[in-house]
């Protein structure tokens, strides 16, 4: 009897939440105590009395109302919110909603089949006043994704697909007749078809077999498929692109400003295939300089309402993986018709500026043009001109592999534009722009696309020259339309998050750095000082990464709030329409307004902006995954080598170590550190040895060896060798 009573009390204790949840899930329906008891699956008298009692308590608290005798309905208040689910790797999640100050914890039992990124309707409640609020998913409004990549485990009558995504807490059940032609252990792409209410796992079907785990093409295709990114064009889209007339006609030239006789050249990476921008230069009779920023006129070929435009919009961006580019446009346009190749006439959309010696913009002109590129430079060649002030391009950096003399007018133009670019950059920095020159990890690949070496790419003066004039064009186009108060596609960047700044301050103080957080201007200047001071130090990559994480994400929007990181009131993306759809929209809108068009629908373009931002984020994730994959692949061949690394993260389960010579990051499990028994101290953000009191903390140098290099999970595990003391 005693046992029974205890069981009852435990049940009774939960009735408050149960009753309220049932009424919450169907806010327009009234329930009596019998209906509630049936849903909870209790039928004894004591439980029914508890339900009646709970209904009275909730009514008295003003949370529910009696709509007719014995029937109760929830009083709708602002406890219902719409937002997204952000899963952790521990089967629980957080509810993220703009209307709420903080993210709200969702225990696993309250997820109700919601997955990471899903748009959901949630109810927020306090189970006990002493605890933080919790959320429960009442309705899944929109799935973030319905296709997943994983490894298939085939049983006799069914199969399961398990993903490597730590945030995906369930495997996917595949009925026998939906296995397609997959073999046990294959990497597959599955579509989630259904998730019955009482089923532990969702039901799915295999829609594509990607190959065997660990094989190069399999893993690259898996990365693209994971983020819903394509890796080839539909046949009909290729066919449409191939029949476009890409010839340069006198009729079209007559409609444009003809700049074919003005000195024009391109500066791009050595291995670039698409050249979407060129610069022209001439000295004007008044002593000022006319500098033209000429951008491939993609919108001339990419017509609205075509299958080619639909495909480009859907992709929204080119994706740059370590060993390949997945272009937004078919090759016939991206590498040929739209590419501003040397010694060819091309249609362009131009922003032409008259600048004085102080780099003040005296005049601007925007419109369609035709140009002739006189020369193609690699960044290394332009850098040589800037550094040596000479016209000699040495063989080891020359695109032709032979030493040559650059034409004198181009050398003079490069040096003058470098001078002006440096003034433009200085003005930006003084206005509060933040200087990010993060080291890029690059790989030397052999003919089988295997990494045989790692090198770092850093921006130099030649890169900054191009960057400053592209920024000028992007800013002035946005300003030109923004001041007319017409709908436009802006590139926006919100101000810094204060909490993240304090977290950054907390971490960098361990290395002896400090931030001045008094004002917006002080923050910008002290961030620039920090980024300058860490240059070349062992902690540079970690501090650069942490600083970037304090920033809001830049995005596309019709609602202009300026660009904090660049310190611009107006900013757009205009200069890369071969690889970014927002730039195509900017071109179309600019021409429409130049032709006297009235402001277009803000709502329609905001929707396109959101889509473009989403696709950009997916592409960035795929690019990061491909770098991580190549790092793991590279480290597979260096298992016996000892590496010096820097501690880049400390957690309760171990430390993350970034190898200094190649920036590869891996985990050392806490149990791998044998010289003492270590525990995590969250206040010091360190591991503390129980006996020795030795600290292992952020920035410490340690020697490690590769323990495990998992290509499928894209994870590195290290053996701890010793500290570098």
TrEMBL record:
<dbReference type="InterPro" id="IPR011805">
    <property type="entry name" value="RNase_R"/>
</dbReference>
<dbReference type="GO" id="GO:0008859">
    <property type="term" value="F:exoribonuclease II activity"/>
</dbReference>
<dbReference type="InterPro" id="IPR011129">
    <property type="entry name" value="CSD"/>
</dbReference>
<dbReference type="GO" id="GO:0005829">
    <property type="term" value="C:cytosol"/>
</dbReference>
<keyword id="KW-0540">Nuclease</keyword>
<dbReference type="Pfam" id="PF17876">
    <property type="entry name" value="CSD2"/>
</dbReference>
<dbReference type="InterPro" id="IPR022966">
    <property type="entry name" value="RNase_II/R_CS"/>
</dbReference>
<keyword id="KW-0269">Exonuclease</keyword>
<dbReference type="InterPro" id="IPR013223">
    <property type="entry name" value="RNase_B_OB_dom"/>
</dbReference>
<dbReference type="InterPro" id="IPR050180">
    <property type="entry name" value="RNR_Ribonuclease"/>
</dbReference>
<dbReference type="Pfam" id="PF08206">
    <property type="entry name" value="OB_RNB"/>
</dbReference>
<comment type="function">
    <text>3'-5' exoribonuclease that releases 5'-nucleoside monophosphates and is involved in maturation of structured RNAs.</text>
</comment>
<feature type="domain" description="S1 motif">
    <location>
        <begin position="640"/>
        <end position="721"/>
    </location>
</feature>
<keyword id="KW-0378">Hydrolase</keyword>
<keyword id="KW-0963">Cytoplasm</keyword>
<keyword id="KW-0694">RNA-binding</keyword>
<dbReference type="InterPro" id="IPR003029">
    <property type="entry name" value="S1_domain"/>
</dbReference>
<comment type="similarity">
    <text>Belongs to the RNR ribonuclease family. RNase R subfamily.</text>
</comment>
<dbReference type="Pfam" id="PF00773">
    <property type="entry name" value="RNB"/>
</dbReference>
<dbReference type="InterPro" id="IPR004476">
    <property type="entry name" value="RNase_II/RNase_R"/>
</dbReference>
<protein>
    <recommendedName>
        <fullName>Ribonuclease R</fullName>
        <ecNumber>3.1.13.1</ecNumber>
    </recommendedName>
</protein>
<dbReference type="GO" id="GO:0003723">
    <property type="term" value="F:RNA binding"/>
</dbReference>
<dbReference type="InterPro" id="IPR001900">
    <property type="entry name" value="RNase_II/R"/>
</dbReference>
<dbReference type="InterPro" id="IPR040476">
    <property type="entry name" value="CSD2"/>
</dbReference>
<dbReference type="InterPro" id="IPR012340">
    <property type="entry name" value="NA-bd_OB-fold"/>
</dbReference>
<dbReference type="Pfam" id="PF00575">
    <property type="entry name" value="S1"/>
</dbReference>
<dbReference type="GO" id="GO:0006402">
    <property type="term" value="P:mRNA catabolic process"/>
</dbReference>
């Amino acid at each position: 009897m005693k046992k029974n009573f205890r069981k009852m009390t435990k049940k009774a204790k939960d009735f408050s939440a149960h009753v309220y949840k049932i009424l919450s899930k169907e806010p327009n329906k009234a329930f009596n105590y019998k209906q509630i008891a049936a849903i909870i699956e209790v039928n004894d008298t004591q439980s029914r009395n508890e339900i009646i009692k709970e209904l009275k308590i909730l009514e008295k608290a003003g949370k529910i109302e009696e709509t007719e005798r014995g029937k109760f309905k929830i009083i709708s208040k602002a406890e219902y919110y719409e937002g997204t689910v952000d899963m952790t790797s521990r089967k629980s999640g957080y509810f993220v909603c703009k209307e709420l100050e903080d993210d709200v914890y969702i225990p696993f039992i309250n997820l109700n089949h919601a997955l990471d990124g899903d748009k959901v309707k949630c109810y927020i409640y306090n189970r006990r006043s002493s605890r933080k609020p919790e959320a429960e998913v009442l309705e899944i409004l929109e799935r973030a994704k319905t296709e997943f990549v994983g490894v298939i485990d085939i049983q006799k009558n069914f199969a399961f697909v398990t993903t490597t995504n730590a945030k995906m807490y369930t495997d996917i059940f595949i009925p026998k007749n939906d296995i397609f032609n997959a073999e046990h252990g294959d990497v597959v792409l599955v579509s989630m078809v259904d998730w019955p209410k009482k089923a532990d796992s969702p039901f799915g079907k295999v829609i594509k077999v990607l190959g065997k785990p660990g094989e190069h093409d399999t893993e690259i295709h898996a990365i693209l498929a994971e983020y819903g990114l394509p890796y080839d064009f539909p046949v009909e889209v290729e066919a449409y692109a191939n029949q476009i007339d890409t010839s340069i006609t006198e009729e079209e030239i007559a409609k444009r400003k003809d700049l074919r006789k003005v000195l024009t050249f391109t500066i791009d990476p050595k291995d670039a295939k698409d050249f979407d921008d060129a610069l022209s230069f001439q000295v004007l009779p008044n002593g000022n300089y006319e500098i033209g920023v000429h951008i491939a006129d993609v919108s001339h070929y990419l017509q609205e309402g075509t299958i080619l435009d639909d495909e480009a919009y859907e992709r929204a961006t080119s994706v740059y993986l370590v060993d390949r580019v997945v272009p937004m446009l078919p090759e016939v346009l991206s590498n040929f018709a739209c590419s501003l190749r040397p010694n060819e006439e091309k249609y362009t959309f131009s922003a032409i500026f008259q600048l004085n010696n102080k780099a003040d913009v005296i005049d601007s002109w925007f419109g369609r043009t035709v140009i002739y590129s006189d020369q193609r430079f690699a960044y290394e060649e332009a850098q040589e001109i800037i550094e040596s002030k000479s016209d000699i391009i040495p063989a080891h950096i020359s695109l032709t592999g032979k030493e040559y003399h650059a034409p004198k007018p181009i050398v003079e133009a490069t040096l003058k534009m470098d001078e002006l670019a440096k003034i433009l950059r200085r003005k930006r920095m003084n206005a509060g722009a933040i200087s990010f020159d993060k080291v890029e990890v690059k790989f030397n690949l052999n003919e089988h696309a295997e990494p045989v070496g790692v090198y770092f790419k850093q921006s130099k003066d030649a890169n900054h020259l191009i960057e400053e004039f592209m920024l000028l064009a992007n800013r002035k186009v946005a300003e030109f339309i923004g001041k007319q108060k017409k709908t436009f596609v802006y590139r926006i960047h919100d101000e810094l998050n204060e909490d993240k700044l304090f977290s950054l301050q907390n971490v960098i103080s361990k290395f002896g750095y400090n931030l001045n957080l008094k004002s917006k201007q002080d923050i910008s200047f002290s961030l620039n000082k920090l980024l300058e001071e860490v240059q070349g130090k062992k902690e540079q990559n970690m501090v650069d990464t942490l600083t970037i994480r304090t920033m809001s994400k830049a995005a596309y929007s019709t609602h202009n709030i300026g660009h904090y990181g660049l310190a611009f009131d107006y900013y757009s993306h205009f200069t890369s329409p071969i690889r970014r759809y927002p730039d195509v929209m900017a071109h179309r809108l600019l021409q429409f307004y130049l032709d006297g068009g009235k402001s277009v629908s803000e709502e329609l373009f905001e929707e396109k902006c959101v889509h473009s931002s989403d696709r950009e984020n997916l592409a960035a994730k795929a690019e990061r995954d491909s770098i991580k994959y190549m790092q793991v692949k590279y480290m597979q061949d260096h298992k016996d080598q000892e590496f010096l690394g820097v501690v880049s993260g400390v957690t309760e389960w171990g430390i993350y170590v970034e190898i200094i010579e190649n920036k590869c990051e891996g985990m050392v499990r806490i149990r791998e550190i044998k010289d003492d028994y270590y525990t995590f101290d969250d206040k010091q953000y360190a591991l503390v040895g129980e006996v020795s009191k030795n600290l292992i903390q952020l920035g410490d140098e340690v020697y490690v060896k590769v323990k495990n290099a998992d290509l499928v999970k894209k994870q590195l595990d290290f053996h701890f060798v010793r500290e570098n003391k």
